[in-house]
Amino acid sequence: MSRTPATLLPFARHALADLRAQAPLVQCITNSVVVNTTANALLAVGAAPAMVDIPEEAEEFAAAASGLLVNLGTPGAEHRAAMHAAVAGAGRAGTPWVLDPVAVGTLPVRTTLATALCAAGPTVIRGNASEILAVAGAGSGGRGVDATEDAESASGAAATLAARTGAVVAVSGPVDVLTDGRDTIRIHNGHPLLTRITGGGCALGAIIAAFTATDTDRLATTAAAVLTYTVAAEIAAERAGSPGGFAVALLDALSTVDGSDLAARAVLS
Amino acid sequence: MSRTPATLLPFARHALADLRAQAPLVQCITNSVVVNTTANALLAVGAAPAMVDIPEEAEEFAAAASGLLVNLGTPGAEHRAAMHAAVAGAGRAGTPWVLDPVAVGTLPVRTTLATALCAAGPTVIRGNASEILAVAGAGSGGRGVDATEDAESASGAAATLAARTGAVVAVSGPVDVLTDGRDTIRIHNGHPLLTRITGGGCALGAIIAAFTATDTDRLATTAAAVLTYTVAAEIAAERAGSPGGFAVALLDALSTVDGSDLAARAVLS
Amino acid sequence: MSRTPATLLPFARHALADLRAQAPLVQCITNSVVVNTTANALLAVGAAPAMVDIPEEAEEFAAAASGLLVNLGTPGAEHRAAMHAAVAGAGRAGTPWVLDPVAVGTLPVRTTLATALCAAGPTVIRGNASEILAVAGAGSGGRGVDATEDAESASGAAATLAARTGAVVAVSGPVDVLTDGRDTIRIHNGHPLLTRITGGGCALGAIIAAFTATDTDRLATTAAAVLTYTVAAEIAAERAGSPGGFAVALLDALSTVDGSDLAARAVLS
Questions:
Q1: B23 to chain A: closest CA residue
Q2: Digit-coded pLDDT (tens) for C37-50
Q3: Is B198–C53 a contact, with Cβ atoms under 8 angstroms apart?
């Protein structure tokens, strides 16, 4: 049991080391804006990205991959078909998968799609508070991709959503809130510059998918991923205080962040 | 009236401050090459990007957005349908929108598309001289995305195009030429490194769309956008003299450029 | 004849200078992950990228371009149609073209597509060992985009593939192996950081396409491209030792690498 703040840190250190030893293959069906950033973030942290995102290939690949990310940022028709195929392959093979319901709430295609994908049993659902409230049916969504509410405001909805879907729900914000419907972990790390670059949240979804390869405790592996990513963001922000340099430094920090950094910086509750 | 060099600088300073206070939501339907750069440029300058680019969502979103960019760089079928939908939504709601007719002239799909979109009443048309000449029917287009003629060579065609469409026309080049068919503004800022990175012009189109949220004087807001962007490019070029570093420094400079920088560097005529 | 190590270096120096003098127009139909990186790499080295990737425009453009890259990384239906159209245009006009068979082997769509494109007569085929083995029919492919075997392991298959297709075959790895089925060149330059960023191999495919404009000796121009790129990678790695900074420094190095750098660093056999 690694779900208390006291046990989570050693768990996360092991998970990060395991991830680098295994270099898990992570399939991503993600939006056009962040696809490059996401692949580079996975490579930097030590995983192996594979953006296999066409319907005819997605199912077979998902069945063989270590993890899968389904991100709804720019859900064109071919991507939507690929998402359904990939989720079917993941379900058949037991591949853990992460749903990132970008900007759901009022936009018609992605909101319907998010509902259907939630019913297919994601392993983890990651979003900002507006997105999680919308997926849980408790809010009307934000005005796009930026969070208009802090993560704590969605903690109740997140727990309800987790209980209903069986997924771990991770709400991103200044304090990240993670829950499986029973236990809740709060991670106080991170940096506001993550909201000044595109893909700051989307790349985290992919890294959560990578960490699922390291253990079957989904809440704990999600927490390990969020901790690794937000600590890397803190390190990056110390090196570069503007968004252009920060994006570069974040990749660098993801490639070097280690257990000592987690131990020195983790603030969990 | 802010259309003379003397009045434009204070107007631009106010517009930049207003943009940051408002963080306008800018919908972009843009090409796959620059979509990440464009989102990051909008975030850096202080706007909120939303790449809502599928036909089923584009119209509704455009009606609610503060501004819209339609960029023809990689005009796949789904994007083309989304562009028509978004322009309809923008027209219905009065959302200002920018047309960037990338590489029009000889290529069949985008040239026809640019003609149709021009007839739909863009607020601003931004391109290099070859593109503006082609859209105006006065040239045969360049050999792709790079300008083969300087902006001044298109100033007459730009004025004609502006008078015909009612749009402000912004011609990018070493000296940028902006006109609404009556008044013309020339902005002598910028740096050649903008032509050594992909998206140097495309991101400007998005930033022009963001500035439209700050005032209804379209020529003046376009000039404020071009001035902000080209001054940021100058600042970036002083920090990094090669294209990789320049692209990073440009995002940094967009996040920090302020009224004092504009005042210190603006060269308008 | 520039195919021996002794003659290749002066050939490569001339080819790089010629490329910069000509700024060849290189059409790319490439995957969504690396399209930005690829355009920036072409611009940095001195070529003119044009990502004309829709079926209705691809054939005409390929007939007029100096070179063409067809990369199978994310082969959606519209891109597949554009690839066939572009290859037809290139064949008709004699435009040299490069096939990059990303992740072929087990994935159904791209493997069939690679076979069909190979039959259409590419000028150069570039891939890692797993990909070349798969295209040659001698292997089952890797687990995605990362090479699971070193380039030398594919040298026999590469020579067979070259003889069968008439293409130069370039196998990327710690030592790059290039062959036209008769002569073989090994290039010992490069840096492991190229495998820690996405697009490290994909951008090379585009640069090979750019170098084809400089001479009709396809093996020699391919070697000149690989040498230029891998020497730039060495220079970049001396400036930045982590993947975020390396990607930036690689673009910078591509913009500055010159004949003296090639002479000082080339290790050919």
A1: A146
A2: 999 999 999 999 99
A3: no
CATH class of B5-265: alpha beta
Q: Among A35, A61, A247, whose Cβ lies nearest the Cβ of C32?
A: A35
The whole-angstrom distance between C145's CA and the closest CA on chain A is: 7
Provide the 3-class DSSP secondary structure of residue A187.
strand
- Residues of chain C positioned with their CB less than 8 A from the CB of B77: 54, 78
Mean of pLDDT over chain B: 95
The upper half-sphere exposure of residue C105, i.e. CA atoms within 13 Å in the direction of its Cβ, equals 22
DSSP class of residue B259 equals H
Contact state of C143 with A25 under an 8 Å Cβ cutoff: yes
CA dihedral C235, C241, C246, C250 (to 10 degrees): 0
Chain B residues in contact with chain A using a Cβ-Cβ cutoff of 8 Å: 25, 32, 35-36, 39-40, 43-44, 48-54, 56-57, 60-61, 64, 78, 247-252, 255-256
C75 in helix, strand or coil? coil
CB distance C54–B75 less than 8 Å?
yes
Q: What is the 3-state secondary structure (H, E, C) of C120-170?
A: CCCCEEEEEHHHHHHHCCCCCCCCCCCCCCCHHHHHHHHHHHHHHHCCEEE
**A241 phi and psi angles, rounded to 5 deg:** -100, 0
A251 contacts in chain C (CB < 8 Å):
242-244, 247
| pLDDT 10s digits, A208-234 | 999 999 999 999 999 999 999 999 999
Closest A-chain CA to B55: A76
pTM of the model: 0.96
User: Considering only CA atoms, which of A44, A41, A109 is closest in space to residue A76?
Assistant: A109
User: Which residues in C lie closer than 8 A to residue B197 (C-beta atoms)?
Assistant: 40, 43
Contacts of C72 in chain A (CB under 8 A): none
Q: Give pLDDT < 70 ranges for chain A.
A: 1-2, 139-149
List strands edge to edge, sheet with C176-179: C48-50, C25-29, C67-71, C97-100, C124-128, C168-172, C176-179, C184-187
Strand partners, C98: C69, C124
Nearest by CB to residue B248, choosing from A74, A109, A244, is: A244
Span C185-220, pLDDT tens digits: 999 999 999 999 999 999 999 999 999 999 999 999
Give me the long-range contacts of A19-23 (CB less than 8 A, separation at least 24). A19/A45, A19/A46, A19/A47, A19/A210, A19/A211, A19/A213, A19/A214, A20/A45, A20/A46, A22/A66, A22/A213, A22/A214, A23/A47, A23/A48
CB within 8 Å of A216: residues ≥ 6 apart: none
CA B113, B80, C78 angle in degrees (round to 5)? 115
